Amino acid sequence: MTIESDPSYPAHWEADVVLRDGGTARIRPITTEDAGRLVSFYEQVSDESKYYRFFAPYPRLSDRDVRRFTHHDYVDRVGLAATIGGEFIGTVRYDRIGPDGRPASAPADEAEVAFLVQDAHQGRGVASALLEHIGAVARERGIRRFAAEVLPANSKMIKVFTDVGYQQKRSFEDGSVHLTLDLEPTAESLAVQRAREQRAEAHSVQRLLAPGSVAVIGVSRSGAGVGAAALRNLRDSGFHGHLYAVNEAVTRDLLDGVRAYRSVGAIDAPVDLAVIAVPAERVPDAVAACGEHGVQGLVVLSAGYGESGPDGLARQRELVRQVRSYGMRLIGPNAYGVINTAPEVELNASLTPAPMPMRGRIGLFTQSGAIGIALLSALLRRGEGLSSFVSAGNRADVSGNDILQYWYDDETTDVALLYLETLGNPRKFTRLARRTAAVKPVVVAKGGRHTPAGHVVPGTRLPEATVSALLRQAGVIRVDTVTELVDVGLLLAAQPLPAGPRVAILGNSESLGILTYDACLAQGLRPLPPLDLTTAAAPEDFRAALAAALASDDCDAVVVTAIPWVSEHALADDLADALREAVAEVPGKPVAVVHVELGALVEALSATRGLPHPAPSRTRDAAPDPAPQDPAGPVAARPASEDRIPSYPAAERAVRALAEAVRYGQWRRGLAEGGYVPEFEDVDEAGAADQLAGLLADVDEGAVLTLAEWDARELLARYGITVRSALPAPSADAAVRAAAILGYPVALKTTAPHLRHRADLGGVRLDLANEAGLRRSYEELTDLLGKPAELQPVVQAMVPRGVDTVVRSVIDPAAGAVLSFGLAGVASELLGDTAHRLVPATDRDAAGLIRSIRAAPLLFGWRGSDPVDTPALEELLLRLSRLVDDHPEVIGVSLEPVVVAAEGLSVLSATVRVAHPPARGDLGPRTLPSY
Fold it and tell me: How far is CA 183 from the centre of its chain?
C-alpha cells in the first residue's frame, strides 16, 4: 500500500522498532492488500492464543473477519501490524466506541483495543511496542481512553496493559477483566517507555559485540583483501565462538585455517554475526542470505554507499530497509568494525590487526575509521585498554545513541569516549548522555560542523556553541580534538574524580611548575604555590612530597612535574614506582604527571612493560595452522594495569584534562541536589490549546504563522506572561492620544523590522513627561529616520529602570525546544554572550541559565548598582519553558526587551511563531530513525 494508491494511508505511522531481545520489527498500518498475510499469520497462532483473543474457540477467520480486520478508515477503526520479513508476527486494532459501547465517531473519545501475537514471538516485547504505537495513533485521532476485555487466565496480556504506566481502572465483569487506560502520557508511562527502549537497544548492541558465532562473507582465496584481513583478525584475536569463512567460489574446506562455505545458508549451524566484505552491488544478495539464515546482526565493511554520492545514498537507504525487514541490526556500511576485549568473547571483527587492544575500562565509538585507527594507536601507546570499540562508518543504523544505551549498564565500561561527526538527533543524544553521565563520564569530540557525505541524518540549525552548551548541560565533557579525547579519557579511566578545584603542584623544575600554575589559572582551577623539589630530587623525594600533598586537606588533586635526570632511563622505573607507592599510600585524589622528554617514564607509569603476552585461545572452528607461528605473533587481549598514572608531555594538556574532570565532578555532585519542573496553578493549558487550534485552522502544513501582537499577548497571558501594551502612533496627534490613554511618562519607539530593538540607531525616546516633549521627539524621529509609515512608531508606558535582557525559545528540528537568555544590545550579540538550556527546564536550569552568561554580574549588583529581581526572571524562564513544552505548535518565542528591575520585570515586546507540530517527536513511541 502506498500513499499514491490510497491518499488516506498514514505513512507516518510506519516505524522500525527494536524488540526486547534486540531484534527489530516493522510496525505499519494494516491495508486491504494484507488479507493473505493476515490469514497466514492467524494459521500460525495457537488455539490457546486464539481463545484468549476471541473468548471462544476460533480456529479460522471467516471472509467477513478478514475484510473487517483489513479495511480501516484510519480514524475510527485502525489496525497495526508488526512484521518481520514482510510477514505478520503481531497485530493490534482499535474501534472507536460511544458511551453505550457501540461503534461511534468523533467526538467520542474512547476505543476498544485488542492484540494478537504469534506464539513464536511472544515474550519479545511485540505487544508492548504495538501498544505504544496504537496509543500514539489514538491520541492523534482524538481518542483519550482505551477499553480492553481480557480473560483472567490471559496473564501475559493483563501484564502488558498494567505495566505500560498509564493511569488505569480495573474491574471484573461477566467473567472477564475490564481495563480502562487513560492515554495521556504520564511521568510513569514515559519512564516505562524509555526503560524498555534502553533495554532493547542495549541488547541489540550486545548481540553485535558478543556473538556466539561469526561468518565473514567475501574472504578471498588468495588471502588478500578486506574480507581476508577481517577473518585473520578474528582468528588471531582468540575469538571464543565459532568462526566461518564464506566465498561463493571456494573449492576447499579451509580458508586461512578457518572452515569455509560457499554461502551462509550452507553453514549447518546458527550464525549470530556476519561481517560483509563484498562489493556494494553484491551486498543485497549477502544480506538476503543472512536474513534467511536467521543472522542477528551485520557489520558491513563494504564501501560505495552514502559517501559516494546520491546513487550510493539511495543504495544505503535500501540497505537499511532490507536489513531491518529481516529483524537485523547493521553497523556500517563503510564501517571499520567492532572489538570486544571481554575475556569470554575476545572479538576483533575489525580491520585492526593483531595484537588486540589491551583489556581496559574505556568504551570507544567513532564514525571515522581513520580517527578510530588514530585513537586505538594513541591508547595503546599510552598503556590504556578498551572494553569495547565500534567504528560505525556511515552509521546508517546503529549509532552513538545505541552504543550509549549499551554502555549505560555495561559493567566493563567506566568511561565512554565518542568521536562524532554529526549528532543526528541531539535531543535524544543529550537525554541518553545525561542519564549515562550520571553514572560514568561521557567524553565527546565532535568533528565537522556540517553533515558530511554518507551521514544521512537530519542536521541541526543550532550554532556550534549552542550545541556545546546543551551537551555540557547534559553532563557531557566536550573536547575539541582527538588528542584531548585521549587525554581526558586516560585521566578519568585511571584516577578518581576530584572533589574540588584546588590543585597542588610539585616537581623538580621551578619553570615547569610555574607553567602548570598558569595553566591551572587559565582553566579556572585554584592552584596552590608550586613546590620545587629542585633538580637534585630523587624518586624518594617525589614519593614523600606526593604523599604529603595527597594527605593534605588543602588540595583536591595533584600535578607532578618532572624533567630528565642525566641518567633518565635508569631512574624512570624508580620514579614511577615511587609515585605509585605514594598514591597507594594515600588514595582517593587524582594525580597527573607532566614530563619533558621522559619517554621511559611514560612507559613505566602506564605499566605496560613486562606484562605477559598470553597465547590466544584458538577459535573453535579454526583448524590447526600448518604454518609455524611467529613466537611474538598474535596475542589475545590482555588487561591494562590497574595502578596507572596518566602522563602528559605538556602542562596545558594535563591541566585541561584535570579541569574537565573537576567540572564533571561538580556536575555529578549537582545532580544530587536535583531539580524540578514547577507547576503553575494559573496556567490555562486547555485554553492555549484551543487558541492555537483556531489560529492554525487555515494554515497549511509546513507553513509558519507569526502571530499578530494581540494574539501573541493573549497566548502568553494564558501562561502568566504579561506583555506591556504598545499603542500605534502613525502621527504625532495619534501619539499624544496614546499617551493620554497610557499616562505619562511614556516611551516613543520605532517598530520597523530594520530598526526593531536597535536603540543604538536612535529609534527610541524615553521618559517623555508631557505632550510637548512627545511631539518634539516624534518630529526628531521622523526627521532623522524617515516617514511614520516606514518607522511604524508606537507609544508605551515607561516601566521601572533595570537591566535589559532577551529571553527566547526556538524549536530546532533535531534538538527540540531550546531556551535561551542573554542581555539586550549589540555587544551581547557581537560577542555571542547567550546561554542555552533544553526544554523542559528545571528550577536549577533556570537559575544556572541566567548565571552562565559572561555579563551576569550586571544582574547581581555590578560596581555598586542595585541587584535585579532574578527570582522573577527565573520564573519567566520557567513559564516560557512550560508553554513551549506543553504546545509543540509554538516553534519560536522572542521576548525582547525584558526589563528586569530591582523588584519585578516588564516584557515590552513579544514575537510568537506557530506551525503545525510534527506527527511524532522524542516523546512519541519508540522508533528507530528513518532516513
Answer: 26
What ranges in 334-463 are assigned the alpha helix state H?
A: 369-381, 400-408, 426-437
Compute, in degrees rounded to 10, the torsion defined by CA atoms 600, 604, 607, 611.
60
Instruction: Give the DSSP letter of residue 561.
Output: E
Assign 773 to helix, strand or coil: helix
Is cis: bond before 355, omega within 30 of 0? yes
Please classify residue 799 by burial: count the beta carbons closer than 10 Å to its beta carbon, then call 0-12 exposed, 13-18 middle and 19+ buried.
middle
Within its chain, how far is the Cα of 545 from the centroid? 44
10 Å CB burial of residue 278 (0-12, 13-18, 19+) is: buried
Residue 749: its H or E element: strand 746-750
Q: The pTM is what?
A: 0.85
Beta bridge partners of 87: 84
Nearest alpha-carbon partner for 881 in 819, 813, 807, 805? 819
In the chain, the N- to C-terminal Cα span, in Å, equals: 20
Neighbouring-strand partners of residue 502: 526
Which DSSP string corresponds to 579-592? HHHHHHHS-SS-EE
Q: Which residues contact 662 (CB under 8 A, 6 or more apart)?
A: 498, 500, 501, 525, 556, 557
Measured between alpha carbons, how far is 136 from 128 in angstroms, rounded to an integer?
13
d(CA 844, CA 674): 8
What angle is formed at CA 133 by the lines to CA 394 and CA 19, rounded to 5 degrees?
A: 55
CA distances from 178 to 52, 137, 170, 747, 766 (A): 14, 22, 6, 65, 67
Q: How high is the mean pLDDT in each 10-residue block of the chain (931 residues)?
A: 62 94 96 96 95 91 95 96 95 96 93 95 95 94 94 91 87 89 87 92 97 96 90 93 92 86 95 97 97 96 92 95 96 96 95 86 93 91 92 93 95 95 76 92 80 52 72 89 95 95 96 96 96 92 96 97 67 85 95 82 62 41 41 45 84 97 92 80 92 92 90 96 92 93 92 70 86 92 87 90 93 77 86 88 92 93 90 97 92 94 93 81 76 62
Four-CA torsion 859, 863, 865, 866, nearest 10 degrees: 60
